[in-house]
Structure formats: structure tokens, C-alpha cells
Design brief:
Helix content is 36%, strand content 13%. The two termini are 23 Å apart. Helix 3 runs antiparallel to helix 4. Strand 4 and strand 5 form a beta hairpin. The strands form two sheets. It has a six-stranded antiparallel sheet with strand order 1-2-7-4-5-8. Strands 3-6 form a two-stranded antiparallel sheet. With 333 residues, the chain is of the alpha+beta class. This is Helix-turn-helix domain-containing protein. It holds the Pfam family HTH_18. Keywords: DNA-binding, Transcription, Transcription regulation.
Length: 333
């Protein structure tokens, strides 16, 4: 979820290592930066770059907080990566390198991953970040060294992943650590978790109606979302709606939108957009490119040929289990 995209665009998607943006005085990349002007066909500019990308569901102990995990290997050329907003945070862990946390994004980030790099990664669900010393509103659109957040724990993880016999075992070590951290930290904010489910695109609702459904004021819901998700409910709703469109497109879903509309327009309606123009505006805002550029002209499969079912199947499952029915009035965002 590339030109693959998992939420993400594997021509450019979700992995760090050398971000093409400036830094603040503190050394932290601030954002969302304006993406540099790059050829939207990175394979022609940098070479094919990626040898392998495999994603899978997390271990059972992380199923409620992690959307997917992955292993990525680049080839003999640098690889252009377009990170897209997913509503959650990600950990990118180069084997033998320094792990980083990608905060919740509100716009695209582009980086170039060096040649011959292996990365293990974890993508968290919205509102389900690992234990961190700061609220996610302070980490939005930032790309930080994990050592800045976890201190010596990150150093021990670096050693464990580097010493693992295979990247698969390194990813297992990272997941085992996360299971322990979540058990130690206790539960997540249940109201934010429900808000995330209600804001899924399959039953479009107004943010004020969501707050009322949760017995919160609009300002209380906003504060809780900023702290636990890193963005306002409205921005989260836009992000989830776009993820819904990508999930439908990457899964090869049959559109059930307006009669007479083509595949793109029908999927836009199914994902909660007013029309295709609405989708195009939001796609440019969130990714920096048009829907057809992002999908490589193919609606029914990922242009890179990777299997993203592990990432999108749980997302699509929420389409069948909407939490809000009837009493909440629908409204376009």
C-alpha cells in the first residue's frame, strides 16, 4: 500500500534512509516538506532499485495495533520512495543501520533509499502508536531517529536486528520487543480507537456527529485525536478516505458507484468522494501526484507486482463492519 502503494507508493512508499528535505536547527526533519521535483517514473531515473518487497500480517500479539509489517531489499541502484499518509506511524529499521520513526504524515515525503539496503518495517494503525515520550501531535510530519525517543532500548534493538541470522528473524525480534512494550504500557485510548473506526470511509459522517456519538464535545475529540493520532479528526477522515480508495483499487474491487462512470470515478464514489474531481484534489494534496500517476494507470493491481493484501485486507474488513448505522447523518467532507 507502488508505484506501489500501500498507503504508500513503492515506487515511492514508506521507507526511510535519506530524506530529501531540509532539517530544523534541532536536527529533526520538519514537514510536511514540499516534495522535490522528481521524475514520477523513478525507475527510469535511478534504475529499478528494488529487488524484493514482502509484507505480511503482524504477529497475533500486535494484531490490534499494527496494520502490517514488511521486509524490503533494494538492488544495485538507489530506490526512490514516496511515503504517503496512512493515519499511523511507522518504524523503518535498516539492518545494520539506525532505526527511525516516521511520524503521522499529512502530505507526501520522498526519499532515496541507498542501494543494497535491507529494511524491516512496521506500520501501526491510527491511534495505536508504540509507547513514545511525546504526543503524536509533536511528531507529525517528522522523521526521527528511534534512539532520540527510546534511548538505550533502541541501541539494544539495533544490535539484536543486526545479529539476527536473517531479516525475517530481525523482524521477529522487533515485533517481540513491541509486544512487550505494549503489554507494559497498558491500553490505548478506547474513544480514539472507536473514533478511528467511525471515521472509516465506508459510512461518511460529519466530525461533529462523530463527537456526539462518542459523548464528547468537538474540541474534546480534537484534543484526543491530536494527542493519540497526531492530526485532527477532519484530517484523519481525509486520510482514511484516501486509504479506502487505495485499498479498493489495489484489491481489484469491482466498483459499485454511479451508473455510467468509469472505474476510477466509481471507486471514488465507493470510497466516499463526491466525484472523481474530489478524489483528484485530495490525491494531489496527500501524494503530490494524480491518481493515475500514483497507480501507474492500473486500477486493478499494484504496478510493481507486489502483494499488498496483508496491508489492505484488514482495512477493507472495516467496510463490512461499519460501527455507525442510521442515527448519524452522512455528509461529504
Amino acid at each position: 500500500m507502488t508505484r506501489c502503494l500501500r498507503a504508500n507508493d513503492h515506487r515511492g512508499d514508506t521507507f526511510p534512509n535519506c530524506i530529501l528535505t531540509g532539517k530544523s536547527i534541532s536536527g529533526k526533519e520538519k514537514g510536511p516538506p514540499t516534495p522535490p521535483v522528481l521524475d514520477v517514473r523513478p525507475a527510469e531515473r535511478f534504475g529499478t532499485g528494488m529487488n524484493a518487497y514482502v509484507e505480511r500480517p503482524p504477529v497475533p500479539g500486535l494484531a490490534g495495533v499494527v496494520r502490517t509489517v514488511w521486509i524490503q531489499r533494494t538492488g544495485d541502484a538507489p530506490y526512490v520512495q514516496r511515503h504517503l499518509p496512512t493515519g499511523g506511524v511507522e518504524i523503518h529499521f535498516p539492518v545494520g543501520g539506525r532505526p527511525r520513526l516516521l511520524g503521522p504524515l499529512t502530505g507526501p515525503r520522498i526519499e532515496v533509499i541507498p542501494a543494497r539496503t535491507t529494511i524491516v518495517g512496521v506500520r501501526f494503525r491510527p491511534g495505536a502508536a508504540p509507547p513514545l515520550p511525546a504526543g503524536l501531535d509533536e511528531l507529525a510530519d517528522q522523521h526521527l531517529g528511534l534512539a532520540e525517543l527510546w534511548g538505550r532500548t533502541a541501541d539494544r534493538l539495533v544490535e539484536a536486528v543486526a545479529l539476527a541470522a536473517t531479516p525475517e528473524l530481525g523482524l521477529a525480534a522487533l515485533q517481540a520487543h513491541l509486544v512487550r512494550e505494549f503489554r507494559r504500557a497498558g491500553g490505548l485510548d478506547p474513544l480514539v480507537g472507536e473514533a478511528v473506526q467511525v471515521l472509516m470511509p465506508w459510512d461518511p459522517v460529519g466530525v461533529d456527529a462523530v463527537a456526539a456519538h462518542l459523548a464528547l464535545s468537538a474540541s474534546q475529540l480534537r484534543r484526543r485525536c491530536l494527542q493519540a493520532v497526531g492530526m485532527s479528526p477532519k484530517v484523519l477522515q481525509r486520510t482514511l478516505r484516501f486509504q479506502g480508495f487505495l485499498a479498493l483499487a489495489q484489491a481489484g474491487a469491482i466498483a459499485s458507484g454511479r451508473r455510467g462512470a468509469d472505474g476510477m470515478a466509481s471507486l471514488a464514489v465507493d470510497a466516499g468522494y463526491a466525484d472523481q474531481a474530489h478524489l483528484s484534489r485530495e490525491c494531489l494534496r496527500l501524494t503530490g501526484v494524480t491518481p493515475r500517476q500514483l497507480l501507474g494507470g492500473d486500477l486493478d493491481r499494484c504496478a510493481c507486482g507486489h502483494d499488498h493484501s496483508a496491508s489492505y485486507a484488514p482495512f477493507l474488513a472495516t467496510r463490512r463492519h461499519s460501527l455507525v448505522r442510521g442515527g448519524v447523518s452522512a455528509r461529504w467532507g
